[in-house]
Amino acid sequence: MEHGKDATKRYTYWVAWDPRDDIYVARVAEFEGLAAHGDTKEEALRELKVAVQASIDWSLEEGDPVPEPMPDREFSGRVLLRLPRSLHRELVIGAAREGTSINQLAVMLLSSSLPGRSGNSAER
Prior knowledge:
Helices cover 39% and strands 13% of the residues.
């Protein structure tokens, strides 16, 4: 991965309103715990990108690995979940009602609940 001036562009960002602090908070998936805030979405995101670039620079100086952006990663599409028995039972019943497999029902339910899908959004 290139770590030059525009290294921050490929990372996965989101901005959400924090009503408790009355401010926008920006986060980045690849840098756990890293966040920035601002009075506007744009300000919070701008501040976070400065922090991400500083984190990249520091990692490079220390010889530490720099997180790979999500878009550059390969995903298998396979996830193994451990569920409570009661939820497993509900999924089996729900799949039967829908006339589909448990896997397809789980994909549908997960897809519809993720931010940015079907009208859901973590960004405000």
